[in-house]
Amino acid sequence: MAQIHIGVNMEFVRHHDMSFAAGVEKAAQLGYQYIEPMLHWGRELLSEAGYFHSVSMWDDPLDIRAICEKYGVRCSSVSAHTALCKPDVSVNYLRAAIRFAAELQAPVVNTDEGPKPDFTSEEEDHLLMKYVLTLAARAAEKRGIQIGLEPHQQYSKTRAGLDRICRLVKSPAIGINFDTGNSYLAGEDPYAWLERVRDRVVHVHAKDITIQQSDAERGKVTGTPVGCACGEGVIDWKRIIDILKPVNRPLCFSVECGTIEQAAASIDHLKSLI
User: Fold this and answer.
1) Domains of the chain (ranges, CATH numbers)
2) Residue 149 belongs to what H/E stretch?
3) Residue 240 Rama label (left phi>0; alpha psi -120 to 50; beta)
4) Are 53 and 26 in contact (CB under 8 A)?
């Protein structure tokens, strides 16, 4: 039976103008034991000034780990979304994220195919993704890191599309970061989809969708940055949990919401079910 943990994506403090360290402290205060940092390259003005939560891969991952240890939390994964269809960007970015995650002791690196170039065909995109994922998987296998491919963009928005991407490279490092909200908004049945892929799920983005957003966007978009509080939207969380219970490995539900208040409500709701 799966051992399900509850974490939070650091996006929950994005609109509160908080630094990474302040966000980690707040997550711990709310009762979260796991967090999901978002990585970036180089230097970023708002993060440097303490007004944004993302972490630079130019920083020392051991310093980031020390912040987490100070507040008694661990990293369930890192958010390292990069355009897999653009190898000039994604090869180095994703391999750097894998190395960073290994030192951070974050077992999963989450990504998706990203927006495609406007001059490539579908077949060309999949060849480019195979090249990127081959190099990423080689780096991940050496370090015991899982790559969580997420339903989020033009190809991965459907079950068949995500399956095709996952099968481009045969590697034990390739898994699925299942996003409940993105799969729902894309127009798919998230429960049937999750049942089909649960043996390959290595991480979960626990994203709920309001009725208003569902009515306005379902079937028209491929995903959304964050959702509402878990339990206040359309997703049946007990059903999601029941589908994943037979999986014989630890899984983290990383809550993706937009405010501290939503994060507080989400952990209360999920704890009542898990």
Assistant:
1) 3-273 (3.20.20.150)
2) strand 146-149
3) alpha
4) no
- Encoding tokens for residue 56? 């630079």
Quick one: tokens of 236? Answer: 């049946």
Closest CA to 90 of 55, 60, 133: 133
This prediction's pTM: 0.97
Mode of pairing for the β-strands spanning 250-255 and 3-9:
parallel
Paired tokens of 43: 């230097």
Read off the pLDDT of residues 187-209 as tens digits, 9 standing for 90 and up. Answer: 999 999 999 999 999 999 999 99
For residue 130, give both structure tokens. 């195979």
First to last CA, the chain: 12
Query: Cα–Cα distance between 31 and 36 in angstroms, integer?
Result: 14
How far is 151 from 113, CA to CA, in rounded Å?
Answer: 9
Tokens read off for 108:
């999963």
